[in-house]
Structures are given as structure tokens and as C-alpha cells.
Write a structure and sequence with these properties.
There is one protein chain. This protein has 13 helices and 2 strands. The protein is an all-alpha fold. It has one domain. It has a two-stranded antiparallel ribbon with strand order 1-2. Helix 1 runs parallel beside helix 11, helix 4 runs antiparallel to helix 5 and helix 7 crosses helix 8. It is globular, with a radius of gyration of 22 Å.
Length: about 400
């Protein structure tokens, strides 16, 4: 059965028939009851206001307590061209590692297509409050236009998401072990590592049981169904999602993918997280902070702690929270090397947060107006079937 895929305006009704998750219906905001529409608008306004208030408080009040922006600019201006090129090369390698990871989970697409999907979705996620959902819509529109089906997209989203959660939970444990070789770990890192290890063990055990036992998948789905119903009541949305059926579908499809490409997914996911940390390390060294001032073990510990802290997307791309967390951990309570640490952290965020925005906009424009540059179709190839409900 052909799957209807919408690529029209976001306010139109979209129905996607997929064997894993059933039917997903996105109601037209323009035709929704006025009361529901006003409530949604109010929630979005509050979410945006809270996000902007956090960002303003961090950059207006919290960051200047560690170092003035004038001293930050002085530290940045002292960088040499070789140091700047090293930082740029590390940032480019970090972006490319994510594209390789996407290809490992979704082998039907090529590297340039993975780059366009990643840049386009990141541009949305980094600029809009709670932009993660819209970013998923952007990636789905792109992938579906290249022939990726709903079931394959859902599988890609779930598997890559699970492996990234594993990486975020495992990093504090790795950082704790490494930091123990350089000094005494802080209480915060020990607590984060303990929480990460406990959650990692629970999730790994749950995934293993899900893959091995069909009866466990059914029982887990039945146990989670009431939780979903409560969440839907709180969000004032219909609870039409059949979790036991979805888990069984995920189990059947994910099992084959993990068996064939599990090691590639694991290696590329770990590489994408570690190369992102290497960008931070390059910024610290580029600003002039030596191993004696900020060790690489300490930088990894700070990176791991903040990655765990920003699991929930309170602000777009963790803006504000990531910067404050890294500066606080690296500078320490005594604000040791505060100006250089602040400059290194802000440089790290600038080279990892900002480039995907213009590059993502360019990727979206290319996808819309020059699709052959990204995905060249063979001569005579049929166009994917798309339908948009009126």
C-alpha cells in the first residue's frame, strides 16, 4: 500500500500509514476548535518566553560573573591562525562524523544526503524553542522525497535516538574513570556517573529483553500504555497509539538492523560524541589553556556532565545552559582562568552551534530548488507517491 507523504504547507492534514506506529494524524491548526487553538498558542508563547528568559539571564547576568566580554574578546584576539584553523578543522570533522553515523543507521542514503538532513534539521532545532519536533518534520520531508518509507524513517529515528541516549549516559562513567587517573573526581561528576550508569544498565537490559523476548515486549507495552494515556490527558491529545503493537513492530525491524549494523552504529555514535568533545578540547588549547591549567580529563568530564544535563531541550540546542554548565565546571568555584575558560567555551559553542544555521538554510534551499544536486534520480525513474489530504 502506498504511503501518503505530505510535503505541502505545515498546516495541512498529514496522515502517514506506517507498520510500526499505526496512523499519525496532525490536525490542521486553522480548523481546530478555537479554544484548543488558543491553548496551544498560549503554551507555545509561555515555552518561548521561558526559553528566551533563560538565555537572556545566562548571557546577561551569569556568564559576566565569570569574565567580562571585553576580556573574552581579548583572549580570542590572541589566537594565532594555526590555532584557529585547528579549531575549524575539529568542528568540520565533528559535523562529518554525524553524517557518517546517520548513514550507518540509514544505509539507503548517501553521505551528501545525510549532510543535508543533518544540517537542515539542526538549523531548525538551533533557532526555534522546542524545535526538535519541527526538526523531525524537516528530516522526514527530505528523506521521504528520496524514497525512504515511513517504517524505515521511524526505525532510523528510534535506533539513532536510543544509541545517542546510551552515549550520553555512558560518557560520565568513562569520564569518571579517566579523571580518577588525573586527580580526585568532584562530587557532581560522581553523582552524574552513578545516575548515568544506573540508567544505562536499565536501558541496556530493557533493550536486550525487548529484542530477545516477544512476551516481554507485549508486557512492557501494556505497562507503558497507561503512562501514555496519562501523558496524553495532560497534553490534551488523543491517546490513539498502540504501544504493544508498536514495540512488536520495532522489535522485528530493529533486530535485523542491529544484527547487521549494530557495531557500525555503536562505533559511529561514539565517534560523533567524542569528536564533539575534541572541538571543546581544541578550543581550550587554542585559547592557550595548557594541560596543567585544564586537563583533557577535566574537559571530558565537563563535556559529559553537560551533555547529560541537556538531555531535555529546554532551550534551542541547549543555548545558555550548555555554556553556563561548561564554564562553571571548567573554571571552578574560584573562577580560575575565568576569562580564558569563558572564551574557550563561547568559541566552542560558536563553531558548533552557529554554522549549521546558515548551512542548513542553504541545504533546505538546495533541496527545494535544486534537488538533483543532492539526489540524482536515474533517467525514467518514477517519482515517489505523495498525497496531501484536503
Amino acid at each position: 500500500m502506498a504511503s501518503p507523504v505530505a510535503q505541502g504547507p505545515a498546516h495541512q492534514l498529514i496522515e502517514v500509514q506506517q507498520p510500526v506506529t499505526g496512523v499519525i494524524a496532525v490536525p490542521d491548526r486553522d480548523t481546530a476548535p478555537p479554544v484548543i487553538a488558543r491553548r496551544r498558542l498560549g503554551r507555545e508563547f509561555i515555552r518561548t518566553a521561558v526559553s528566551m528568559a533563560i538565555i537572556a539571564a545566562v548571557f546577561g547576568f551569569a556568564v559576566p560573573r565569570f569574565a567580562s566580554y571585553h576580556s573574552v574578546l581579548s583572549s580570542l584576539s590572541a589566537m594565532t591562525w594555526p590555532q584557529a584553523l585547528l579549531v575549524g578543522a575539529a568542528a568540520a570533522a565533528s559535523m562529518a562524523s554525524v553524517w557518517v553515523m546517520i548513514c550507518s543507521v540509514l544505509p539507503s542514503i548517501r553521505l551528501r544526503e545525510a549532510a543535508v538532513v543533518n544540517l537542515g534539521s539542526n538549523a531548525v532545532a538551533n533557532t526555534l524553542p522546542a524545535g526538535g519536533a519541527l526538526a523531525m518534520g524537516v528530516s522526514w520531508a527530505m528523506l521521504s522525497s528520496w524514497g525512504v518509507g515511513p517504517a524505515e524513517y521511524v526505525l532510523y529515528t528510534l535506533v539513532s535516538g536510543i544509541w545517542n541516549v546510551f552515549a550520553r549516559l555512558g560518557l560520565p562513567v568513562l569520564a569518571l574513570l579517566l579523571l580518577a587517573t588525573a586527580g580526585r573526581p568532584g562530587t557532581g561528576l560522581i553523582a552524574a556517573a552513578a545516575v548515568g550508569l544506573a540508567l544505562l544498565g536499565a536501558l541496556a537490559a530493557g533493550l536486550g529483553l525487548l529484542m530477545r523476548s516477544e512476551s516481554f515486549a507485549v508486557r512492557a507495552g501494556r505497562a507503558l500504555q497507561p503512562v501514555l494515556a496519562i501523558g496524553c490527558r495532560v497534553a490534551r491529545r488523543p491517546a490513539s497509539f498502540d504501544i504493544p503493537k508498536a514495540l512488536l513492530g520495532f522489535r522485528d525491524q530493529a533486530g535485523a538492523l542491529i544484527a547487521a549494523r549494530g557495531w557500525r552504529i555503536t562505533v559511529t555514535t561514539a565517534a560523533s560524541n567524542l569528536t564533539l568533545w575534541l572541538v571543546l578540547l581544541a578550543c581550550l588549547r587554542g585559547i592557550g589553556l595548557s594541560q596543567a591549567q585544564v586537563s583533557w580529563q577535566t574537559s571530558l568530564a565537563a563535556f559529559a556532565f553537560v551533555r547529560l544535563l541537556t538531555v531535555l531541550p529546554i532551550t534551542p540546542g541547549g543555548l545558555g545552559i550548555t555554556e553556563l554548565g561548561l564554564i562553571a565546571v571548567l573554571a571552578g568555584a574560584g573562577h580560575r582562568d575565568g576569562a580564558q575558560v569563558t572564551a574557550a567555551v563561547l568559541l566552542y559553542r560558536a563553531v558548533t552551534y552557529l554554522p549549521p544555521i546558515p548551512l542548513g538554510a542553504l541545504a533546505c534551499l538546495t533541496w527545494r530548488h535544486a534537488p538533483a544536486l543532492i539526489h540524482a534520480k536515474p533517467a525514467g525513474a518514477a517519482q515517489p507517491t505523495r498525497q496531501v489530504s484536503p
